[in-house]
Amino acid sequence: MKRSKATSTTAAPDWKVTRVALYVDHDVLYANEHQQVRVRAYIEAENNGDPVPLTPAERASVSLIDYNAPRNAIPFSTQARATAWKGWSAQRVYNEYAYHPAAARDGHSPSTPGAGGDYVELYLSADAEALAGPLMLGFTITGDNGWRYRTDGYVFEPGSDKGAFNTLYDTGPDKAVRAEPPIVYANSEFVLDRQAGYRYGDTPAATIFDDIVTVSIVNGGRVVALRSMQCKRAGMIHWINELPDTHNPCYTGYAEPGGTAITWDDDVPVGSLPRPTLSVAIPGKGTIMLCGRNDIPRAGHEGAPQEPVKVTLRDTYGSEQHCHIGFVAGERDTLKVS
Questions:
Q1: Structural domain contains residue 7
Q2: Kind and range of the H or E element at 29?
Q3: Quick one: which of 110, 112, 119, 108 has its CA closest to 44?
Q4: Based on the domain organization, do 21 and 169 belong to the same domain?
Q5: Per the structure, how many domains does the chain have?
Q6: Residue 233's domain spans which residues?
Q7: CB 128 within 8 A of CB 87
Q8: Distance set, CA 332 to CA 37, 207, 248, 258, 264 (Å)
Q9: Which one of 31, 125, 154, 295 is CB 3.0 to 4.6 Å from 179, fit for a cystine?
Q10: Least confident window among 2-16, 98-112, 129-143
């Protein structure tokens, strides 16, 4: 249906919003710039008395506001740090980090919305500034005819900043979201689980092998899935002692959760055998590829990286975690978290 354009700022619009509602589906999140809460704006509109759906431009005009400071829209940004209002940023797309485990509501749109009604899903993320206090939410929508509706109850004619109050459009000050500090896991909650792979030789001190060591977080008996993992440096090598003719070291590389591409450090010597590949992705866990060799003498490789690697992980909730993974001194092939 063709929309009528406003011909006068004093004329009643042919197109108008007749009902609004705001649903906060998840009311708490970690202030880590990645986790989101989902918010749904519900709008019913009519043109000349007939219910009509929102146009793409009208849907795109919907934005969240601070109910207590309604002239301030929550800026759209892919991440909270880039631009924010009191630490809060809005997004139109769900980035698939898990919602906060204590989020109060499931939040599913009714299967049969009201006649002519539209739901517009929006998301919020937060940085540390948002820890100062909860945010009371509202939203605005602008029609193609220029009329603007703000859910603190004010309606604005095209081009005007002076609105008229109407309780029909007031969603109330109780639509709140709050931020919590991200969880930081202790070293004891990082778990290394070794899985034997290719092996050649029966003497432990000289066995050639390519084993997988998974990296996970276990908190209160529950495995917390990982979204990403990077090691800096990418790998390391370890001889059981500092004798120059010791030639049975182990070296490492790593793969991201859900990936099969192994990242190696080119400064780590590998001997005569090729580096192994990873044929199966391991979702939710990082992978350390642990390789044992018996043809890499320590002499001549003293400058190879031997220090523990710094590991940066992002958990399923979007929170960044840190630890170090290195070899146990005096043992050939045992890794530890520190």
A1: no
A2: strand 28-30
A3: 119
A4: yes
A5: 2
A6: 187-337
A7: yes
A8: 47, 10, 8, 28, 20
A9: 31
A10: 2-16
CA-based max dimension of the chain: 93
- Report which residue type is found at 128: A
Domain termination site, one of 143, 164, 180: 180
CA 67 to each of CA 10, 20, 64, 173, 224: distance values in angstroms, whole numbers, following the listed order: 27, 14, 9, 6, 35
DSSP 8-state symbol, 244: T
Q: Is residue 28 part of a domain?
A: yes
Burial class (CB in 10 A: 0-12, 13-18, 19+), 98: middle
Residue 11 pLDDT > 90: no
Q: Mean pLDDT across the stretch 106-110?
A: 47
Does residue 197 contact residue 287 with C-beta atoms inside 8 Å? Answer: no
Domain's final residue, options 180, 210, 228: 180
Sorted by sequence, the CB contacts under 8 Å of residue 325 that are 6+ apart come out as 192, 215, 231, 288, 308, 309, 311, 335, 336, 337, 338
Q: Which positions ≥6 away from 18 have C-beta within 8 Å?
A: 44, 45, 46, 168
The answer to whether position 10 is within a domain reads no
Q: How far is CA 32 from CA 10, 87, 176, 323, in A?
A: 47, 10, 18, 18
* Buried/exposed code over 303-336 (b: 16+ C-beta within 10 A; e: otherwise): ebbbebbebebbbbbbbebebebbbeeeebbebe
CA 138 remoteness from chain centre: 24
Tokens 């006649």 sit on residue: 115
Taking the C-alpha atoms of residue 204 and residue 288, their distance in angstroms, rounded to an integer, is: 20
Number of residues that make up the chain: 338
pLDDT at position 289, please? 98
- Cβ atoms of 337 and 324 within 8 Å: the answer is yes
Segment 141-184, tens digit of pLDDT: 999 999 999 999 999 999 998 999 999 999 999 999 999 999 99
What SS3 state is found at 172?
coil
Provide mean pLDDT across the span 103-109: 53
